[in-house]
Amino acid sequence: MDEKLEIENPSALEPDTSDSDDAQSESKADDIQDTEELKTYVDDEIDDFTIEEKPEEEDPEDASDETPSEVPEKKKIPLKPIIISAAAAVLAALLVYGGGAWYYSSRFFFNTTISGSDCSNLTAEEASEKIRSDINDYKFVLREIDGAEEQINSGDISLEYTAVDGIEELKKKQNPFKWFIIEDETRNMTAERKISMDEEALKKKVDTLKCVSDSEQSMNGMTEKIRYSGGAYHIDSNGANNIISRSLLYDKIKAGIEDLYPGMSLEDEGCYVGAENEDRMKPALERMNTYVSAKVTYDHGSENVVLDGDTISNWVSIGSDYKVTLSDGMINEYVSDLADKFNTCGKSRAFTTSNGSKITVSGGDYGWRIDIGAEESALTENIKNGEQVEREPKYRQRAARYGPNNDLSNTYVEVSIGGQHVWAYKNGNLIVSTDCVTGDPTKNRSTDTGVYYIKYKERNATLKGEDYSTPVSYWMPFNGGQGLHDLNRGAYGGSIYKGNGSHGCVNLPYGAAQTIYENFPSGTPVVVY
User: Fold this and answer.
1) 173 falls within a domain
2) Cα–Cα distance measured from residue 399 to residue 389, given in angstroms and rounded to the nearest whole number
3) Per residue in 108-163, pLDDT tens?
4) Secondary-structure percent of the chain, ordered helix, strand, coil, rounded to 5
5) Which CATH number goes with the domain that contains 420?
6) For residues 230-262, b (16+ Cβ closer than 10 Å) or e, as one string?
7) Boundaries of domain holding 303
8) Which pTM was predicted?
9) Which CATH number characterizes residue 312's domain?
């Protein structure tokens, strides 16, 4: 042994002072020649090693009674067995520690959980299989508002792992030399997992939950409680949140299962709502309120008409199946009434002739005309989108300006059948004033009266009928086959049209026809009286 043995009480090892003992000691030292003999010597000395035991303190009064011959007795403690036992204990501890480090070099520590699965003492491969198999016992518990519980089992939705990754990496986080440390944070870990489930099966399972069916029962007849007031639809649910939102419930359950939670409280997760927020009721109310939020202001000059929710609400209905309907028939009726109000086509007009007479002209196809079909479609879209717009109706035909009696501008062509005369005004200025020849009334070919407009213009046209074919230089039809055109006649005006009139057209001298053609575009009103 290289280390120096220090003794607390050196006198305990001092040999006896007798001559015989000294001689024996010297003789023994001389005989020691090698390590084995030295070791034997030390062992023998340790065997003789004694420690003087400290005497107990005595009462001073008893000290006088003690005889000088009474000396504290020495107690021998064997040191060798103690050392051997300690060494054995250390060796055993080292063997256990080393064995544990070796064992856990390839296995997870005891009390190791991975993603909720007990993976104690398992290899990475075994742990992966354990995690996969544990999902078969998975269940998701629903705690409901009345204290009842329902659950969804993994088998109900074909829940399984598609992947359990990162187990090897998790094992590397555990230092095998720390296997004995109970509080090691690596004893509770989460693996990278991917799961799959049959979402259609989950939806069906949610639909069959008792809490869902009870909620649907509570909604029976609720659509009949919808009322329109203050520009919006409302339903009185008394502020109670006791109806299941099926969509929200499904989303919460799906998210919980994806994270493999043990369950949830439906109330804590906000799955209970008021009747107005029930899955079918909420979108139905939103749709209805979108409809009545629409506002359409029809601009027709000084005659503006406003359509808003107070009227639209009469067109909206909801069935027991929560289907919201916007009445096409009522929209058609409204647009037809609007057309009666705004249309001027074919209606009587007050007109002041070039001779200063105030007359009423009826008939014809000039004027405002709403396209009922197009306006119905446009209005329906406005309502369904909840739009607030100001616009014109969809017109099939337009007049020069707004107003039932003043939709003629100061640009027009005036034809007097009785006077057999034509005037043409452009921006209020008289451009043409000429005699004419109109249709022959004696042969049922009279020119029709009314307010029309030039449909189009054509140069060098040939006019054909059952018994005629007439080429003209300027053709401007305004009423079917009746129109303004040039025709070389010997005379115009007077009573020529009676017996020698046209087939209904207005015959003009060449120059007058040319001037009208060149100054008046298609769409120009033609007033015939």
Assistant:
1) no
2) 23
3) 999 999 988 999 999 999 999 999 999 999 999 999 999 999 999 999 999 999 98
4) 35, 25, 40
5) 2.40.440.10
6) eeebebebeeeebbbbbebbbebbbebbeebee
7) 292-346+370-397
8) 0.67
9) 3.10.20.800
